[in-house]
Design a protein that fits this description.
Elements (H helix, E strand, L loop, with lengths): L2 H9 L12 H6 L3 H26 L2 H18 L4 E7 L1 E2 L4 E2 L1 H11 L9 E5 L6 E5 L4 E6 L2 E10 L15 E9 L3 H23 L3 E4 L5 H5 L6 E4 L13 H15 L2 H7 L4 E7 L6 H12 L2 E4 L8 H10 L4 E5 L2 H4 L5 H8 L4 H22 L5 H9 L9 E7 L7 H4 L6 E4 L5 H12 L7 H10 L4 H8 L8 H41 L1
Parallel strand pairs: 9-12, 11-14, 11-15, 12-13, 13-14
Antiparallel strand pairs: 1-8, 2-3, 4-5, 6-7, 7-8, 9-10
Helix pairs in contact: 5-6, 11-15, 17-19, 18-20
The structure holds adenosine-5'-triphosphate and magnesium ion.
């Protein structure tokens, strides 16, 4: 079709001169063939568009759909399209659940925003302090993967465009559209989409605001309900391994162990073991067991499930709670010795060492009565075997990537079956404060790494049984102006007192031993 020459004849411009005095007919004749092709293409397209507008306005819905399908085929036939498009819808299934693939793509694309992207949207995510940016509708993102280019757009099918007989208006259906050249089809199906999903999920997990879940709300109603559910709050504990006071080598070993666990998905799969690991933290009160759990969660970026065993009705409920936990989490049972058939003994034991025996007996009686009442109400029938099943039964493998942590002040009271390797794989003792641990605390609390009083403290701390919690309390400045030296002196006084008390106790002990020796000799003679 000689479009240009026909037009020039019709317009009668073939003989006219342009402003430079040159013959415009010559210019028309010199037009390259691509321009001619474009002109012809645009005229065909214009015809198609016009026809389509007529169809949209006057045809019934079903006929329109039918024609639309064939029109697309016709266009593909005339202008073969080398691109493939894949749509990932936001809501899927009959119940219209939010698609996990859509969420993963959303996270993935949020890291691929180019500087010249014009239409963006900001959303407050889980982490309420931060906005997350993403592309808005019809903005395009170009991504590169293994030297191939991919284009993503967020589009929508307008709900109102689809006439619905329902009373409720149909909502818009948003979807991400991936467009690529057909030569990359295998790359997309075999690796690119997997790559997008994997990266997207990881980004989502890392960005989420971590949660602390608990089943023991202190509310009796939760216990009598048909099934106990986890309740949650945001996990915001600031503890980390840098601020934990303990032997540096031991600390390094624990950190390495945790990081190795996190990276060992394939290893666990290869050896045929569920991807979970048990930690037993034991030691006197105030030596940092709970603090270490928080530091573990912060290091690994895991959620925490604080399981109150005494609030669990029976083994079935325990299993339900386990199934409801997610991966990338730490399941904690604190004071395990008090949780299982030993409820409350720890409290009584602590009080026994008190001097005022009468008061202790009275308190003991009250506590026992209270516990009896509580037991009657709660009737927790979790057994040891139920707990063992919880740790390493078949159900414990669902989800994967979980730590189970028990803490106790009395490791000797625990059933050996509960803490054998394979259940509690790593036993960590947290003990009284050493000089090395003190240095970490002085750095944390006073921001000093050396001082002339350190030598004295080093000597005293060797003999005194002082917990990191007590050292921390002494080091904590009591007013805003208090000098570090004051805190150190306060600690020295406490250490000296402990030393004196230990000396008195040991002389008493010696005397008692002598007396019992004498009485034995007397009874023999
Ligand atoms: N090893 C430690 N490093 C740093 N801080 C510590 C350490 N141990 C204790 N603390 C401090 O003492 C406080 C009490 O510690 P934590 O609750 O972790 O002790 P615990 O071993 O869990 O005690 P309990 O057996 O009574 O539950 C914490 O607030 C923490 O700041
Ligand atoms: Mg604790």
């Amino acid at each position: 079709m000689d479009f240009t020459s026909t037009r020039s004849k019709k317009n009668g411009t073939s003989n006219s001169n342009d402003s430079d005095g040159r013959d415009s007919r010559a210019i028309v004749r010199r037009r390259p063939p691509t321009i001619e092709l474009l002109a012809s293409t645009s005229s065909t397209l214009a015809t198609i568009m016009f026809t389509w507008t007529i169809i949209r306005q006057y045809c019934p819905h079903d006929l329109r759909q039918y024609l639309h399908r064939y029109l697309n085929k016709f266009i593909d036939y005339i202008y073969p399209n080398p691109y493939v498009r894949i749509a990932i819808y936001e809501f899927v299934g009959e119940r219209l659940n939010r698609s996990k693939a859509f969420a993963a793509v959303e996270s993935y694309l949020s890291t691929k925003l180019s500087d010249d992207a014009k239409r963006l949207k900001a959303e407050v995510g889980d982490n309420k302090n931060n906005f997350s940016l993403n592309i808005d509708e019809y903005e395009r993102i170009t991504d590169e993967y293994e030297n191939a280019e991919f284009w993503w757009t967020l589009s929508k099918i307008s709900g109102s465009a689809k006439k619905s007989t329902s009373l409720y208006p149909e909502p818009d259906r948003r979807y991400y559209q991936l467009k690529f050249h057909k030569k990359h089809r295998n790359l997309v199906t075999e690796s690119y989409l997997k790559h997008v999903l994997k990266e997207g999920r990881e980004i989502k997990v890392n960005r989420r605001q971590r949660k602390l879940y608990t089943n023991g709300t202190g509310n009796r109603l939760t216990i009598h309900r048909q099934s106990t559910m986890w309740s949650e709050v945001y996990f915001e504990h600031p503890a980390n391994f840098d601020t934990i006071a303990m032997d540096p080598e031991k600390k390094h070993e624990i950190v390495e162990d945790l990081l190795t666990f996190r990276e060992s998905k394939d290893y666990y799969a290869r050896i045929g073991k569920a991807w979970k690991r048990g930690y037993l933290l034991y030691g006197p009160p105030g030596t940092g067991k709970s603090t270490m759990i928080a530091a573990m969660a912060n290091l690994l970026n895991y959620d925490v499930y604080d399981l109150e065993l005494t609030a669990v009705k029976d083994n079935t409920e325990l299993r339900k709670l386990l199934i409801e936990t997610t991966s990338k989490s730490i399941i904690v049972i604190e004071d395990i010795d008090c949780s299982l058939e030993l409820t409350g003994q720890r409290k009584i034991k602590k009080e026994e060492s008190s001097k005022d025996e009468e008061k202790v007996k009275e308190k003991e009686k009250l506590i026992k009565e209270h516990l009896k009442k509580e037991e009657e109400e709660v009737k927790s029938r979790v057994t040891l075997s139920g707990l063992l099943n919880f740790i390493d039964g078949i159900w414990s493998a669902c989800g994967g990537e979980r730590l189970i942590v028990f803490t106790t002040n009395h490791v000797e009271k625990l059933d050996p079956a509960l803490i054998r390797s394979g259940r509690m794989d790593k036993h960590i003792e947290l003990s009284y404060c050493t000089f090395e641990a003190f240095k970490v605390l002085s750095k944390n609390y006073l921001n000093i790494e050396t001082h002339e009083l350190f030598e004295e403290i080093q000597e005293l701390i060797k003999e005194a049984k002082i917990t990191p919690a007590d050292v921390a309390e002494n080091l904590m400045p009591k007013s805003r102006q208090e000098a570090a030296e004051n805190s150190l002196r306060r600690l020295i006084r406490s250490l000296e007192e402990l030393k004196r008390a230990a000396e008195i106790e040991s002389t008493k002990e010696e005397k008692r031993a002598e007396k019992s020796k004498e009485s034995k000799i007397n009874s023999c003679s």
